[in-house]
Amino acid sequence: MLNADFFPTPPEVAALMLDPLDLRCRTVLEPSAGKGDLVRHCLARFAEEVVWCEKEPELQDMLTSIRGASPAHSYADFLRVHPADVSHIDLIVMNPPFSADEAHILHAWEIAPPGCEIVALANWNSLSGHYRGLQLKLANLIDAYGSLEDLGECFADAERPTRVCVGMVRLTKPGTKPGGDEFDGFFLGPDDIEAQGEGLIPYRRSRDIVNRYVEACRIYDEQVEAGTRLRGVLDGFFGQELGLQVTVEGAPVTRNRFRKDLQKAAWQHVFAEFLPAQMATSQLAKDINAFVEQQSKIPFTERNLWRMLQIVAGTQEQRVDRAVEEAIDSLTKHTKENRYGVEGWVTNSGYMLNRRFIRAYMAEPSWSNPHLVRVKTYGSQSDEIRDLIKALCFITARPFEEVAQPERGDNTYEPGEWHTWGFFRFRAYKKGTVHFEFLDEEVWAAVNARYARIKGQVLPETHRRPKRATRRQEVAA
């Protein structure tokens, strides 16, 4: 009936996972929720909400009945959940399928927001012995950011027993969760659906987005009211429990969850239509998701829509700095080949980016042609490259539309062959690495100069901007 990876978490193992944690008023993600064992344990320890994923329809039905639990945006496939979907969570607790445990834990790390804790079970064979591929990447991650514990055959007497040796991984994503003042100045009013009168404001696209949101909320309420009336009409007559509900991809959704998800979708439309593309970074999407999730009373009005756009536009400099800092930190922290050394630079505050740098795990063999390699266009690593390109567009005043995508739209290439992507040329390899090189030395110098300023360092004059050859030198050459 259920898949071969279905092994509900025993209570004593759940206790080992959760005892060191304070779950009070925290939002938890359970990526492979099964029939809800870990979900219930988290709620019993006063978690504010547990967001879940589960691919089995029969188990999804069980999970929808748990009060305090709600499905994630891509709840049927955890590996399709994006960072912007879960930027509000505090903790990830997971008992992933042991046939793909490394991939699930690594994806949890990719989408986890700064400061998030991850507690995961895994097959001990995935965590010890001869590492390669994803196992090596996971081993390096645990060594840098967490710990590992051997739990032995802790499922031997479980509801569904197995003699597999199990390990427990604990990871903490570096950084701190952004404070509640990320959008300070955004007007917050009462949690009612606002009347949107015509007034003196003419029709425009912003009003259409707001009106569609308001009308959808009204229709939801009308559906619930119709269910209440139906039960009243048939009370004592039909003899069975009746009700009407709104579902999203087949799963029932509460009014609060419906409104929040609707607002997130509305903000995506707003940013796509009213913001220059280089402002709409992946970090902005995460910030909006966390903002909507953490605020319980947010009126989605046309006035507030324009106020939000003003705030985003007014903080563009800070967002560019954030994109540059996060990308260069990520590229240089654990990869010496990507670092560019300068005498006098204080290395414990960061490393400058080499003109040539490497991104691991960003390519894979093509599905349609095994002789080609495909560059991944999803995940945190590709998000960082795109955000860096958007930051460079701001720094160089170049339109993002000119550099948004690689020169080939299908993202499949001959291994080791150079191609162009915006400010870089790149080549991909079947082993998963993508090699990048800045096309323009001045752009490379400019982004490192900005990074130095962010880190509070002053670059020597010779490294701020590359010298151009004099006319005499050019003639002599």
What does the overall shape look like?
A: globular
How confident overall, as mean pLDDT?
82
Structural class: alpha+beta
Give the strand line-up of the largest sheet.
Answer: 3-2-1-4-5-7-6
Integer count of domains? 3
Based on the structure given, which CATH architecture of the largest domain is correct?
Answer: 3-Layer(aba) Sandwich
What's the helix count? Answer: 15
- Cα(first) to Cα(last) distance is 76 Å
Within the CATH hierarchy, at the fold level, what is the topology of the largest domain? Rossmann fold
Tell how many strands the DSSP assignment holds.
Answer: 18
Summarize the structure.
The chain has 477 residues and is an alpha+beta fold.
Commentary on this structure:
The chain is an alpha+beta fold and 477 residues long. It has 3 domains: 11-172, Vaccinia Virus protein VP39 (Rossmann fold, 3-Layer(aba) Sandwich); 205-311, no CATH class; 319-464, no CATH class. Helix content is 39%, strand content 14%. The chain has 15 helices and 18 strands. It has helices at residues 11-18, 37-44, 57-63, 101-111, 124-127, 134-145, 205-234, 255-274, 282-294, 302-314, 316-332, 380-396, 441-454, 461-464, 471-476; strands at 27-30, 49-52, 69-71, 91-94, 117-123, 146-152, 166-172, 247-248, 251-252, 339-340, 352-353, 356-359, 363-365, 373-375, 412-413, 419-421, 424-428, 434-438. The strands form 5 sheets. It has a 7-stranded mixed β-sheet, sandwiched between helices. Strands 12-18-17-16 form a 4-stranded antiparallel β-sheet. The termini are far apart. Residues 185-203 and 461-477 have low confidence and may be disordered.
